[in-house]
Design goal:
CATH architecture of the largest domain: Alpha-Beta Complex
Distance between the termini: 43 Å
Number of domains: 2
Number of helices: 11
Helix content: 40-55%
Number of strands: 12
Structural class: alpha+beta
Largest sheet: 6 strands, mixed
Radius of gyration: 20 Å
CATH topology of the largest domain: Lambda Exonuclease, Chain A
Order of helices and strands: EHHEHHHEEHEEEHEHEHEEHHE
Oligomer: single chain
């Protein structure tokens, strides 16, 4: 019997694999990312994520909430403008690659045609969040941490699962993983979610929290900022860990060893819009390399810490 195959998966890779193997190859194996950058919704979501990361990190480090607010807002503003030392190549700032990239598709003020959220309103939303939760009793313990654990192993494969946790807090009822979700409209959060299930297994809990941060201008803060619990039965977690995860791990191994990552044309249009790689698939095989050269660049090596925000 040969050595076991080690497979490393996270929620982004697994969910993409379930949708389209070719997209996994293009995005994660070849690291192609669009030259045009993130969409407006992802950019303003990333601004809020950066604020929350630095805000809670400063609270963990013993700063007052008011000082933590200042640090969080400064980090959000740098995310908007971009770090000058990152962009000029000197890299004297010790930031991670693409940590403060600067916005490409987000104007200062919101627009209706096309419909885009302005970065000024994203910053205002951060201030609103602080004001609403200023008396929050939850105790932040960790932010933006990646945890890994072998969740499945048999005679052939060993699957290491990695989860990027936005925030871990003591809610006074339990220590729970919390995921920040931003958006212009509240979507129903389904429990059928690899990210949420994986976080529960990593944290040895059956409940995680969605920290909704809304960009709606017509809603009161109580309706824009909602913390929604997502809970699982023990059986559902076991089924995912012992059946669903290994099934897709074997598919991943099959594609990797064969070198062929088949497309799935039923996933070319998603709730976030058309697949960013659609132009590649719509090109003839002999023209795909040219399509990639014109519209894509090589991004940083994939790891859970640079997951896209949704």
């Amino acid at each position: 019997m040969g050595e076991k195959k080690n497979i490393v998966l996270d929620a982004s890779v697994l969910s993409t694999l379930m949708g389209c193997a070719r997209l996994v190859d293009l995005r994660y194996n070849n690291r192609f990312i669009p030259l045009k950058g993130k969409s407006n919704s992802l950019e303003v979501g990333s601004v809020v994520h950066k604020f929350l990361e630095i805000y809670y990190k400063n609270i963990i480090n013993g700063f007052s909430k008011s000082i933590s607010l200042q640090h969080g807002m400064a980090a959000a503003e740098m995310y908007i403008t971009g770090c000058k030392t990152c962009m000029d190549g000197t890299r004297t700032c010790n930031h991670q690659p693409d940590e403060y990239p600067g916005l490409k598709n987000t104007p200062p003020d919101s627009t209706t045609q096309p419909k885009r959220i302005g970065w000024k309103y994203a910053l205002d939303t951060c201030q609103q969040y602080y004001d609403y939760y200023t008396n929050d009793h939850w105790v932040p313990l960790e932010v933006e941490v990646v945890k890994g654990e072998v969740l499945y192993e048999d005679d052939t494969i060993r699957v290491l699962w990695k989860s990027k946790l936005d925030w871990i807090a003591d809610t006074n009822q339990a220590i729970l993983p919390i995921d920040h979700k931003t958006g212009q409209a509240r979507r129903e959060m389904l429990s059928l979610n690899n990210q949420f299930i994986g976080q529960c297994l990593i944290m040895k809990t059956r409940t995680m929290i969605i920290n909704h941060v809304g960009f709606q201008t017509t809603l009161k803060p109580a309706d824009k900022f909602v913390r929604e619990p997502i809970s699982y039965s023990a059986d559902r977690l076991i089924e995912w860990q012992s059946e669903i995860l290994p099934y897709w791990a074997y598919r991943y191994l099959e594609y990797h060893e064969s070198g062929y990552w088949p497309p799935n044309f039923t996933h070319c249009d998603t709730k976030y819009g058309p697949c960013v790689m659609r132009g590649i698939c719509e090109s003839d095989r002999g023209m795909r390399e040219e399509e990639i050269k014109i519209n894509f660049m090589i991004g940083a090596e994939w790891n859970p810490t640079n997951e896209s925000t949704d």
